[in-house]
Amino acid sequence: METLETIRKRASLKNRLSSREIEPAKIAMVLDAARLAPSARNQQPWRFIVVQGKENVEKVVKKAFFEFSQDFKGAPVLIFACANPRDDVTHDGQEYYLFDVGLAFENLLLAATDLGLVTHPMVSVKEDALREVLNIPDGVRFIAATPLSYPDKGSYDEAARERLNGRVRKSVSEIAYYQRWGTPFETALGV
User: Which domain covers residue 70, as residue numbers?
Assistant: First the structure.
């Protein structure tokens, strides 16, 4: 699959989770894609916790997820991205770890999409409870999580179709400027 096609078809599909187990090789592939992301000064601050198995997933979701995320109990795998801010670059008061982990996490999401797996990135958890249940050390911050699942029925494309058909994105002219703020990119270049 081409990269741009994968980007276009990636969708958050928490309501389309199957309990079907994910092959260890596929979990390894999405983690490998994450580790290949760029990071400031190549510090690679990300760390991932993979939770697998019905009982383990349910325990984490019940203890650390808010009510609106209880759907994740049905996933065969949860992946948590964490980082210790001290393991990354801080320049002029700007901490890079959130950006760096975000890059790795997007690689993970795109690799999962390419493999036909459902994901749904989330950042809202009860962090203290998550820290306790996953034994996350002091100083390490939770950044994001996603279930990893096969679609509940059909292919990934079938599962994502409805979500993608209803998705609205701003145009390039609404989000990109040319040479300076306020000059729409598309207008300036006649695109």
Answer: 3-189
The closest alpha carbon to 103, from 147, 48, 148, 46, belongs to: 46
Number of domains within the chain? 1
- 158: number of Cβ within 10 Å: 11
Q: Which residue's structure tokens are 């989330």?
A: 122
Q: In what order do the strands lie in the sheet with 77-83?
A: 46-52, 77-83, 141-148
DSSP sequence for 4-33: HHHHHH--B-GGGB--PPPPHHHHHHHHHH
Which CATH number do you get for residue 174?
3.40.109.10
pTM: 0.93
Q: State mean pLDDT over 56-83.
A: 95
Q: How confident is the model at residue 191 (pLDDT cuts 50, 70, 90)?
A: low
